[in-house]
Amino acid sequence: MADINQRVLCAKSDDKEFSALVRDYQNLLLSEAHKYTGKYITVSDDEYSIALAAFHEAVISFDETKGQFLSFVRVIISRGLIDYLRKQGRDPETVSLDSATDEDSAQQSIVNQTQFHLYEEKEAEAARQSEIRYEIEEMQNILRNYGFSFYDLSKVSPKAEKTKTACTEAIVTLLLDHSLSEKMQQSRMLPIAEIERKSNIPRKTLDRHRKYIIAGAEIFLGEFPHLAGYLSNVRRAKWEKEAKG
Predict the structure, then answer these.
(1) Residues 94 and 38 both lie in one domain
(2) Using one digit for the tens of pLDDT, what is the confidence trace for 174-187?
(3) Which residues does 54 contact at the CB level (< 8 Å), separation at least 6?
(4) Are 30 and 48 in contact (CB under 8 A)?
(5) 133 in a domain, yes or no?
(6) Which of 127, 161, 178 corresponds to the end of one domain?
(7) pLDDT of 17-64, one tens digit each?
(8) pTM for the whole structure
């Protein structure tokens, strides 16, 4: 999913993009309407229409220099719903399961809270994917200085378990020896002879998997928590080696 701020800017003048935004964030509208009314909300309810109108207002008036859209739109929706409810002579309220007075209202509250949690999970996953894309772009910039692409790694990643272990050891050797990692980053080359001498890994293995070893080291030398998650074997091997001293 594209960055929400950029999608909103497009939706200002693109009806199709606005409709797509409404579909993607419908659970947000439903959960916000539920939060202020205390009842189960569907797209047929007036409260949903109020939330939708507020969503449209938020899209049209959004200024990306003043913050994130999702924070802004919640304010606009809450304002619209509160105004609507007060005009109806109803008090806005925040609903929890404790406020349910009978079985039906409890079920309705559960349904709406489920909608809210689904929305939150969707937002969390969208944020995670966005962060991963950012890390890949940053790593791509770093690896370009070494003369290869992040997308080359799928072709050069070790397949055999023995080779994976050797490459992991090579990466850990770089991480634990700052002079070696600095030499790699300054020369934009893998210090094969030094790694071979320190680890006894065959030169042929180091040379064949040079790109993978460089990328693995750079991931841990920088701030790439999501990409590092795919190299848990390196983190574990580094911890074990550090523990042994």
Answers:
(1) yes
(2) 999 999 999 999 99
(3) 73, 76, 77, 79, 80, 81
(4) yes
(5) no
(6) 127
(7) 999 989 988 888 888 888 877 778 888 888 899 999 999 998 998 887
(8) 0.55
